[in-house]
Amino acid sequence: MEALCEAWHLFQEGRFFEVHEVLEEAWREAEGEKRRFLQGLILLAATLHQLQAGRSGLRNLRKAEGKLQGFPSPYLGLHWRPLLEEARRRLGA
């Protein structure tokens, strides 16, 4: 999935707002498990964006954890767990 590849690069560059933009269209078109996974990534990007802006992203982190629970890492070729761990580390959660 091209959107995931682009999102991964944006995550690595710390461009978290753009991650949301890239994944939103793919999320709207997705169904089932894939849709839940993409929503979890979007929430994770929102968490990291909020932290970058000096705000607490704890609420979005908890939502992301709920959506991503049960998915292996990698899933759809994306190693997402390090991103979740980074958000947890930054929040001290």
Main features:
DUF309, single chain, mainly alpha, Hyaluronidase domain-like, 93 residues, DUF309 domain-containing protein, 5 helices
Structural notes for this entry:
The chain is mostly helical and 93 residues long. It has a single domain, classed as Orthogonal Bundle (Hyaluronidase domain-like). It is built from 5 helices and no strands. The model has no long low-confidence stretch (mean pLDDT 93).
CATH topology: Hyaluronidase domain-like
Low-confidence stretches: none
CATH architecture: Orthogonal Bundle
Kindly give the count of domains. 1
Protein name: DUF309 domain-containing protein
InterPro entries: DUF309 (IPR005500), TTHA0068_sf (IPR023203)
Organism: Thermus scotoductus
